[in-house]
């Protein structure tokens, strides 16, 4: 593929001259593929090259590990990478944490007056306890930036340790990461260390993300290499994506063995109605022809918030009972949520007749055929009464029958959070199964932030702000209001639309004439229709 060859040559030139570069590519352009190709070229030129590849999430880091065959390659998240660099300098770390607390850069609300805190050792955990020197995810980057700013020797040590550092999905990182690498490290790295950034500023959708590094490109510190290919989306979706941004124009690039373009023709349609989105009504329209809503890997309906989804998919009671969404939906759910997910897993796998999975999830050891029969009858009745069995009754019944024990930690949690549980315990068990479906991506629905990096044959995006003030679809289409909100909304719309391999529908309830005019500019007049 000529485009890839040209991109690789441009990157190669930067690698040889140790010039920092940015591989900027839109959605579906194969940025991770190019990153892997860059690794191949580095190790082909020198098998002893010292390379680190760092990214925003564990999922992304694991993907790179899986796709790269190089045992010498250092792959980790940005947080783990920086912690590994600074963790040995405990005296300096203790001073850094103390100074950041005193200055207010790290917020502090402990019982000991902050001026009297004595920190002798600093640890990085998934929680924080500043009085004991324990910092978490949020504090680490601030501490690392302080360390690199005040102790230049760290930058020299890093330059001596690596020849190349590649940062994947750079736009998702925080400003402090860019400061560390492009302000502090590069001053010591001339001719020694090459920094390579991979990503797309239009896909910066997280609150802490950096929109771009344009100022470094303008100053010549970073060479931008643009990749205009799109291997994922249909031709009509690509046309829309190009209308949503002005800095990059993509072209279909998926080819067969003869070199012919094979991106699907597909469709990109803007639908509107006087009413809110109704899935049943939509499925009876011609636009839903051949859409398989029973397969969440094929079709996805995207809403802005969990709350907009929960009511439609049957777990709104659970979500309403939780004060903090992360305790229910984050990577580390609280003790009750973990227990409910286990219950959901038992029910789901029983429903799918995955009995080996059921056995692996329950606490009771099966010793006889009769044990299997007793458990089977219990779960059959359990499943048949999802809508009338309460969550509390389910927890107690599973505990009583020794299938899923209610351990001391759960009992302690329920006692400490009794007000919350008073609401949850009366909810039907069906909410637990619906929650399990959603948490484990078995659902037709997803949030618009939750599908970044994914792709689906058919995608429907609903334009509803869900009372989230950071976004405003009306302002985006009417080009009115706060510019930062318009840009943020445009980026989330771009990310959502670019998930579609074949067919894309954007639905807007009760749009103004100005919104419809703007939709016609973006989608084409024939692709804006009422249902």
Structure description:
This protein is α/β, with parallel strands linked by helices. The protein contains 24 helices and 16 strands. The chain has helices at residues 2-17, 31-45, 58-67, 78-86, 90-103, 137-150, 153-161, 175-189, 214-218, 235-244, 279-283, 306-313, 316-321, 326-329, 335-351, 355-361, 369-384, 391-400, 408-416, 418-424, 430-439, 473-478, 483-497, 513-523, and strands spanning 21-25, 51-55, 74-77, 123-124, 134-135, 164-168, 194-199, 223-227, 229-230, 251-252, 267-273, 299-303, 445-447, 456-462, 500-509, 528-530. The chain has a 6-stranded parallel beta sheet. A 6-stranded parallel beta sheet has the order 13-12-14-15-11-16. The protein has a two-stranded parallel sheet with strand order 4-5. Helix 3 links the parallel strand 2 (51-55) and strand 3 (74-77).
Structural class by sheet pairing and helices: alpha/beta
Global outline: globular
Strand content: 5-15%
The percent of residues in helical segments reads 40-55%
Order of strands, main sheet, comes to 3-2-6-7-1-8
Radius of gyration: 26 Å
Q: Work out the number of β strands.
A: 16
- What is the averaged pLDDT score? 93
Q: How many H/I helices?
A: 24
First CA to last CA: what distance? 42 Å
Largest sheet: 6 strands, parallel
Extract low-pLDDT stretches.
none
